[in-house]
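Customer escalation, tier 2.

The customer says the design service returned an amino acid string that "doesn't look like it belongs to this structure." They asked us to rerun it and document both sides in this ticket. The original structure tokens are below, unchanged.
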């Protein structure tokens, strides 16, 4: 049996070694940050906001320890053996996520949320847009944001276009 395995692993004599096929690989990295916010839409009355958002509409806000997992996708570089240098990815995530969001009041300290409700869905879009500006074109695959262990949002950059 061992000889059969050995034969299967070796190329026939005189056969050229084929270059291995390019492999598409996804690489993920996680960060956590703390921030507070208040779910409140300027398009709704105070009563409508209370009904829609409940305790999350508390005028004093509330906080979360968010976890964000960023996934990039690409070919494994034959020289480095990497899709992306993880040190670079760490720096991109620091600039795109940690610096603007960690220990911040999302509604007051992050200009994007001055006019956009600070839901986890909108937070995922904000992070995607920040990362897209920094990462090599076409490598950003997914942003996954954990507001809690039970509430998780995934964004892959999809857009809905309306027909007119």
């Amino acid at each position: 049996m061992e000889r059969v395995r050995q034969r299967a692993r070796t190329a026939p004599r005189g056969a050229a070694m084929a270059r291995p096929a390019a492999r598409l690989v996804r690489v993920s990295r996680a960060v956590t940050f703390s921030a507070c916010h208040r779910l409140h839409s300027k398009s709704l009355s105070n009563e409508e906001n209370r009904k829609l958002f409940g305790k999350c509409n508390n005028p004093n806000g509330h906080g979360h320890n968010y976890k964000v997992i960023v996934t990039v996708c690409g070919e494994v570089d034959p020289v480095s053996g990497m899709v992306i240098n993880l040190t670079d990815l760490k720096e991109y995530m620091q600039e795109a996520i940690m610096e603007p969001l960690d220990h911040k009041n999302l509604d007051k300290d992050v200009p994007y949320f001055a006019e956009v409700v600070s839901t986890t869905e909108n937070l995922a879009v904000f992070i995607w847009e920040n990362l897209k500006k920094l990462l090599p074109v076409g490598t950003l695959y997914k942003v996954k944001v954990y507001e809690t262990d039970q509430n998780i949002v995934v964004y892959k950059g999809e857009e809905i276009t309306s027909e007119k």
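Tier 2 assessment: The sequence is consistent with the input. Helices lie at 2-9, 46-53, 86-101, 106-109, 120-134. Residues 123 and 145 are 8 Å apart (CA to CA). Sent an explanation to the customer and offered a walkthrough call.
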